[in-house]
Amino acid sequence: MLNTHWHFDHTGGNENLGKAGAIIVAHENVRKRLSTEGFIEFFGMKTKPEPKVALPVVAFTRDLTFHLNGDELVVSHVPRAHTDGDSIVRFRKSNVVHTGDTFFNKLYPFIDTSSGGTVAGVLAAVDGVLKTAGDDTKIIPGHGPLASKADLKVYRDMLAAVSGNIRGQIKAGKSLEQVIASKPTAKYDEVWGKGFLPPEKFVEMLYKNLKK
Ligand SMILES: [Zn+2]
Question: How far is the CA of 101 from the centre of ligand 1 (A)?
C-alpha cells in the first residue's frame, strides 16, 4: 500500500491496514513526518506521532515501480510540491495517473507550506504529468472528481495565473488585506471557490507561501 503524502486524510487507514499485514510504502519524508509530532501551520493543527504499525515499512527517496496485476505502477517523488513527501503514480498499462494532492480538481488546492510545500513545486509536478499524459489518460486528483489532461491544464493555468498575480502584488509591497481586496481569484471563484478553501483563504495561503 502506498501513501502519496503524510496528511491524515491520506494515511488515516495505515494503522488498521498495517495491523492486517499490509506493507506500507512511502517517500522517506512521509515516514519522518508520521513518526514525529506534526503541525500544519495554516490550520493550527497538531498531529501526534503514529504508532509503529502505521509507519511505512519501505521508504524511498526518488522513485520506484510496482509490478502488480499485470500492470506497471511507476511511483515518482515530486520535490516540495503539496508537501515535501509527495508521490505521483502512473499506471502504465491502464493509462491512469494518481496525482496525490498536487492536484485538486474544481476546488482551490491546499499547499502545506509548513510541511515543505511550494507553489513552484506543485506547478512543476503538474507540468511533469501534462508532459507524459495523453488526451485519454484518466487522472485521479487528490480531491475532486476524476479528471482528464484538459482538466489538469485548466488547474495549472488557474494556479499559475492567481499565484503570478499575488507574487506581483507582494513585490509591489501590498499587504495581505490589499491583495484579498483586489480579488485576484474573481474569475475562477464560480468553479473553484465552493470547495475546501473559500477564495479568501486560498489567497491568504498563497500570499503566506509566496512571501516566504
Ligand atoms: Zn494533503
Answer: 5
Per residue in 57-71, pLDDT (tens digit) is: 999 999 999 999 999
Give the HSE-up count for residue 15: Cα atoms under 13 Å, Cβ half-sphere: 8
Lookup: cell for 151:
482538466
Angle at 93 between CA 91 and CA 99, to 5 degrees: 20
pLDDT at 104: 98
Closest CA to 107 of 62, 154, 60: 154
Distance 173 CA to ligand 1 centre (A): 30
> Where do the H-state alpha helices sit in 101-143?
119-132
Q: If you measure from the C-alpha of residue 144 to the centroid of ligand 1, how many angstroms do you get, rounded to a whole number? A: 13
Q: Output the CA 192–ligand 1 centroid distance in Å.
A: 17
